């Protein structure tokens, strides 16, 4: 499961949590264990039910693409629970969805400082790439490689790094970075395989190697014809 998928699963679990029907505030029972534990340690008992409710509201708003609404709720939560990693992570990802790169960097850097998890480094790197801070993209990519990131997180970071190289006109270097991981076919491809095939196909097309671009776009279409605009890109290369 990728970092994005893990974060999404955690948000969905939070959003699906239920408020007890008793008039007396009680702790929510079906929050993810790590989030419930973190909130229990950071929030006074008398405020816990309300904080859990507001975090669930923010998670639902995010899942429904209502990012300004999520942002308003999370801003309040950050003021009251500044050291809850789940809140800072969701706050950062909401800023990212809104294209507010500097704020996203601030929040996801705080998430990293609180957890020492590199799960959101690909998102951090993408924000830095958007700001054209390519040296920082390099640093984050190196941290990912050196800190035992899982294969899905590494794949996400590799895509951002390749995009950063391409932004600088280093198409050959971007191709070299992706080729060992994206050139071979896979019998049952995961999402990371499809995204890497697509990115490599795009790079080959930009380099003028149309046959290889066509082969990779075909591989993407055969696995998932609805992924991005792969079908249209393949058709344009005939």
Distance between the termini: 35 Å
Return the structural class.
mainly alpha
Runs with pLDDT <50, length 5+?
Answer: 9-29
As a percent range, the share of strand residues is under 5%
Structural features, described:
It is built from 13 helices and no strands. The chain has two domains: 1-117, no CATH class; 169-238, Serine Threonine Protein Phosphatase 5, Tetratricopeptide repeat. It is elongated and about 65 Å long. The chain is mostly helical and 238 residues long. Helix 1 (3-15) packs across helix 3 (45-63) and helix 9 packs antiparallel against helix 10 (171-182).
Protein traits:
238 residues; Serine Threonine Protein Phosphatase 5, Tetratricopeptide repeat; 2 domains; 13 helices; 73% helix; elongated
In short:
This protein has 238 residues and is an all-alpha fold. The chain has helices at 3-15, 33-42, 45-63, 67-80, 85-97, 101-115, 121-130, 134-146, 151-167, 171-182, 191-207, 210-223, 230-236. It has 13 helices and no strands.
Layout of strands and helices, then pairs:
Layout: H1 3-15, H2 33-42, H3 45-63, H4 67-80, H5 85-97, H6 101-115, H7 121-130, H8 134-146, H9 151-167, H10 171-182, H11 191-207, H12 210-223, H13 230-236
Helix pairs in contact: 1-3, 3-4, 4-5, 5-6, 6-7, 7-8, 7-9, 8-9, 9-10, 9-11, 10-11, 11-12, 12-13
């Amino acid at each position: 499961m990728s970092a994005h998928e893990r974060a999404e699963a955690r948000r969905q679990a939070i959003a699906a949590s239920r408020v007890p029907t008793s008039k007396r505030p009680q702790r929510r029972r079906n929050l993810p264990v790590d989030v419930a534990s973190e909130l229990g340690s950071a929030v006074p008992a008398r405020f816990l039910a309300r904080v859990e409710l507001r975090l669930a509201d923010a998670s639902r708003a995010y899942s429904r693409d209502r990012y300004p609404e999520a942002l308003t709720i999370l801003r309040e939560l950050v003021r009251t629970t500044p050291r809850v990693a789940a809140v800072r992570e969701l706050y950062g990802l909401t800023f990212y969805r809104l294209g507010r790169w500097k704020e996203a960097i601030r929040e996801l850097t705080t998430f990293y400082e609180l957890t020492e998890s590199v799960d959101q480094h690909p998102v951090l790197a993408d924000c830095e790439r958007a700001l054209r801070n390519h040296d920082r993209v390099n640093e984050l990519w190196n941290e990912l490689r050196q800190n035992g990131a899982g294969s899905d997180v590494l794949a996400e970071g590799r895509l951002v790094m390749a995009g950063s190289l391409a932004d600088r006109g280093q198409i050959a270097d971007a191709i070299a970075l992706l080729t060992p991981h994206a050139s071979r076919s896979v019998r049952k491809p995961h999402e990371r395989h499809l995204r890497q095939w697509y990115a490599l196909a795009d790079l080959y097309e930009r380099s003028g190697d149309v046959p290889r671009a066509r082969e990779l776009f075909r591989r993407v279409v055969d696995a998932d014809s609805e992924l991005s605009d792969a079908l249209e890109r393949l058709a344009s290369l005939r």
